[in-house]
């Protein structure tokens, strides 16, 4: 992966490599921040602080292959700080980029269903599908056993499948 090479160079002091590595993570960082924070301004603040913290401590990164996981962990911690500071309730706005809007109403409806999940399930679904993290990465980020992440993801899929099927059947069916 390109960011892994850049992370290795950044660890040795290459500032341009650090910038390149961070740019490859921008979308994942935004989607992760949006899973935790309500406003785009809070997301931007958390992302900016994450970049600064990562830059200051890049030499402490032990394994460049885990750069993405390391950055996302910093971001999640920063999102928690923003939530504590602003005392926002963890709710999610339906926020889509232009590509998602063009994909049609099915994506919008699915995101609305995701937003109805309990926070513990919603966070995992958003990190997995929107943040594109693996189960192992989510486990590390949320400090949960992999089995817990898998079971919550499975439970969320069951709920979403049931909810989506219930919606399409119509009100008159029992």
Describe this protein's structure:
The chain is mostly helical and 174 residues long. The C terminus is likely disordered. The protein starts with a helix and ends in a 5-residue tail after the last helix. The chain has 10 helices and no strands.
CATH class of the largest domain: Mainly Alpha
CATH homology superfamily name of the largest domain: RNA polymerase sigma factor, region 2, helix turn helix motif
Helix content: over 70%
Counting helices, strands and paired strands, the structural category is mainly alpha
Mean pLDDT: 77
Rounded to the nearest angstrom, the radius of gyration is 18 Å
Please tell me the CATH architecture of the largest domain by its name. Answer: Orthogonal Bundle
Summarize the structure.
This protein has 174 residues and is mainly alpha-helical. The protein contains 10 helices and no strands.
How is the secondary structure organized here?
Elements: H1 2-11, H2 15-24, H3 26-36, H4 40-57, H5 67-86, H6 98-102, H7 105-115, H8 119-130, H9 135-142, H10 146-169
Helix pairs in contact: 1-2, 3-4, 3-5, 3-8, 4-5, 5-9, 8-10, 9-10
């Amino acid at each position: 992966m390109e960011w892994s090479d850049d992370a290795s160079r950044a660890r040795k002091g290459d500032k341009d490599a650090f910038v390149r590595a961070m740019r490859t993570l921008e979308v994942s960082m935004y989607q992760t921040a949006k899973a935790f924070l309500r406003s785009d301004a809070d997301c931007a603040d958390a992302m900016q602080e994450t970049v600064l913290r990562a830059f200051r401590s890049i030499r402490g990164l032990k394994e460049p292959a885990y750069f993405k996981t390391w950055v996302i962990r910093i971001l999640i911690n920063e999102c928690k700080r923003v939530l504590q500071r602003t005392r926002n309730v963890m709710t999610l706005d339906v926020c889509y980029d232009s590509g998602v809007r063009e994909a049609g109403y099915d994506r919008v409806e699915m995101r609305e269903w995701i937003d109805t999940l309990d926070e513990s399930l919603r966070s995992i679904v958003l990190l997995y599908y929107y943040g594109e993290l693996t189960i192992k990465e989510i486990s590390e980020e949320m400090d949960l056993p992999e089995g817990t992440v898998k079971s919550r993801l499975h439970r969320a899929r069951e709920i979403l499948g049931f909810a989506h099927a219930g919606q399409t059947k119509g009100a008159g069916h029992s």
